[in-house]
């Protein structure tokens, strides 16, 4: 067995999110020197179960093994059918197991990947469950830098408390880039409300959910933004009428909007 190859693959598994639980089994498989082998790894995310099958192939020219891909079978709570997707190992930055789960949940992940020429490029990835590839995978949509999605600028349009502290802001952005549904503190009418957000590069915005993980409609966001603009104009004694609200204004429930209007009358 090639010891350096083993150490490389061991670290590769660790940094792809499989920890060190597969180390001894990896060594055993490599010592058999078979042309290919698989390893399995199960992970629980809340009440969802993700079973991964990792695929390894031996080089025809040497004793080196390569970690080529892993297939994830996601069994969601209260669902009879499994969702399957294969993730291929990239020379630069692999999609981790947690990121794979987030993608299969429909969220978006930001990665620095390597093209065929060995050049790094940044991209947002999102699975398109309406389209399938010839290999049986769902299509993986790519939103490159020139697509124009700026997560930090998008977040700045919302009254999120964590953005006021550089460290919390950095942690929030990094978590969203990994595809997580991240909790955030929204400051509204002097109150702090815990909500959840996720990146939405396709529509150049973020999706906001309430404490019960119910999606908050963007139309409410527009109405709330307009209400805030009206209040600001009244305080300044302006006679001008407000213009149409921005699409990416703070997202709040209708109840909050109604209270706000009553206060401004």
Automatic annotation (TrEMBL):
Disordered as annotated region, ranges: 214-265
Ranges of Polar residues composition bias in the record: 228-244
Bias-annotated ranges (Basic residues): 256-265
Compositionally biased region (Basic and acidic residues): 216-227
Protein's name according to its UniProt entry: DUF3945 domain-containing protein
Organism: Flavobacterium saccharophilum
């Amino acid at each position: 067995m090639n010891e350096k190859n083993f150490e490389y693959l061991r670290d590769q598994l660790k940094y792809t999110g499989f920890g060190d639980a597969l180390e001894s089994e990896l060594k055993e498989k490599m010592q058999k020197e078979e042309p290919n082998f698989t390893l399995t790894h199960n992970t629980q995310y809340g009440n969802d179960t993700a079973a991964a099958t990792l695929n390894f192939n031996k080089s025809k020219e040497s004793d080196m093994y390569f970690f080529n891909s892993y297939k994830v079978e996601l069994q969601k709570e209260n669902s009879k059918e499994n969702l399957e997707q294969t993730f291929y190992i990239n020379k630069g930055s692999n999609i981790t197991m947690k990121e794979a789960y987030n993608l299969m949940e429909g969220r978006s992940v930001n990665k620095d990947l390597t093209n065929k020429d060995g050049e790094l490029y940044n991209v947002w990835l999102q699975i398109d469950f309406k389209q399938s590839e010839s290999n049986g995978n769902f299509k993986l949509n790519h939103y490159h830098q020139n697509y124009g999605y700026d997560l930090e600028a998008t977040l700045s349009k919302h009254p999120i408390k964590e953005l006021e502290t550089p460290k919390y802001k950095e942690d929030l952005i990094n978590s969203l880039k990994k595809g997580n549904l991240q909790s955030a503190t929204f400051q509204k009418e002097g109150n702090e409300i815990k909500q959840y957000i996720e990146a939405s590069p396709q529509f150049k915005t973020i999706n906001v959910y309430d404490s019960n993980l119910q999606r908050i409609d963007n139309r409410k966001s527009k109405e709330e933004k307009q209400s805030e603009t009206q209040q600001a104009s009244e305080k300044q004694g302006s006679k001008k009428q407000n213009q149409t609200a921005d699409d990416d204004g703070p997202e709040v429930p209708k109840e909050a909007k109604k209270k706000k209007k009553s206060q401004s009358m």
